[in-house]
Amino acid sequence: MAAAAPLAGAEPTKLEKKPIKFSNLLLGAGLNMFEVTTLGQPLEVVKTTMAANRQDSFAGALSRVWARGGVLGYYQGLIPWAWIEASTKGAVLLFVASEAEYYAKSFGASDFVGGISGGMAGGVAQAYATMGFCTCMKTVEITKHKIAAKGVKPPGTFETFMDIYRKEGIKGINKGVNAVAIRQTTNWGSRFGLSRLAEQGIRRVTGKEEGQKLSGWEKVLASGLGGGLSAWNQPIEVIRVEMQSKKEDPNRPKKMTVGNTARYIYGTSGLKGLYRGVTPRIGLGVWQTICMVALGDMAKDAVEKLTGETVTAKH
After folding, report:
1. What DSSP character marks residue 207?
2. Alpha-helical regions (H) of the chain
3. pLDDT digits (tens, 9 = 90+) for 144-179
4. Least packed by Cβ within 10 Å: which of 16, 144, 174, 189?
5. Closest CA to 274 of 263, 285, 283, 286
């Protein structure tokens, strides 16, 4: 008996991997570098200062940072650690997220689930590839006690890096990397989902149909809400800062894990302590959104002219 001919139009859509273009990587690195060099690092420094000194108010943290070095105090850890992180994390995210999304869809996942899976996998890869040691060194720079004795020069950033490496090895410069991985994977998963929910709400309010393009300000609002609301996981950020901090406290656990650090923070500062620094973090999320969404189109045009490629990455 002859095999039945396949029905016309019944051929499944071929699943293709998204190409990783140099123009996409350049756009991501450029936008991240601009974001961190403007308001990003000052907000990061204030957030980290509040998380490490949990008795400080927002105003108190601003004063503490100013006393540490004036305007330059707000840019501690920018060079080279924040620049290394900003210029590499986008590339890592694009490569890994593209692969993870492709394999998730090959197992039957929807676009929505595939997107979240890709983002979460990319977030974990970011943590273990570059963000672990970069966030650790930024936190060390921000929280280490400056040597104030006369005639004693405070150690430089690379001197501090090598000192930690000699004493504690790879583990020392990647301290708190597991907390960074948890933060990144929950960040990307929740940002993606919350931004999509916000977009749906905006469409209902404005009467726009599914698939109809949002205006620039509507995109900023949706992404800003997603970025701001994703700060729900601030406790893991406070835990990360405490694990990486050079603050001296004899009551801190000798060998710090995510679990015992959480118990230590709760025991010394209560539930409120786990949310210290959430205000500047929300501000950081909104600023990142403005840079990626509002400035994304202008940066996209510039990169396309420079490379001659069509940028396909979504920012």
Report:
1. T
2. 22-35, 41-52, 58-69, 83-106, 111-126, 132-143, 157-173, 177-206, 216-229, 234-244, 258-273, 278-289, 296-307
3. 654 444 455 666 777 777 887 788 787 777 777 888
4. 16
5. 263
